[in-house]
Amino acid sequence: MVAFHYSSYGTFCLHSKSSIISTVVLPTTEIIEPLFCYNKDMLYRQYYLSPIGRLCLVASDQALYGVWLEGQKHFQSGIREEELVDTSNPILKMTKNWLEAYFKGDHPSPDTLPLADRGTTFQLKVWSALRDIPVGESRTYSQIGKVILCQSAQAVGTAVGKNPWLILVPCHRVLPSSGHIGNYAAGEDAKRFLLHLEGIRFDNP
User: Fold this and answer.
1) Residues classed as catalytic
2) Starting from the edge strand earliest in sequence, which strands make up the sheet with 43-50, in order?
3) What is the CA radius of gyration of the chain?
4) Residue 85's beta-bridge partner residues?
5) d(CA 185, CA 77)
């Protein structure tokens, strides 16, 4: 990690972990904030082989950034490959344990997993509404729209489709008002499996 340090004497120091790399005198007599560090979270990636296919899990040391089915729409959206390290960490282990319990038919609470702060203001409203849908129940896009005071079911559907936490934030529980299975970023087969697992009925088998 590299840190930039402004001293009260107007000097600018570039630090490495072990030593000062260089010092430059700045033409100022003001006292500036003592220390600013740039330390971007490292992102860790692991895979989980689930009944619907191989899931990709990404997390930092503080939060879970996403769960995606390989090949789905918006796969690893917002994350560059060069940011990833293919090794595990405590949050990824917790996520695997959660998924293991879920696919066994248990109902683990997703609130036990810290989710990263990502998405637009509108997307966060939609995703928050998704988290409020109980296991075994479904909602329509219009019903989600009413909860967040949005009259556009299409806008709600777009935000639902970009949910980065497959299963944990249960976008599979959102169905069209027609009662059909509807779209799903991870594919219709995956959505059908999850709905059957939770005992959610829909008109189009």
Assistant:
1) 171
2) 64-69, 53-59, 43-50, 84-85
3) 22
4) 44
5) 12
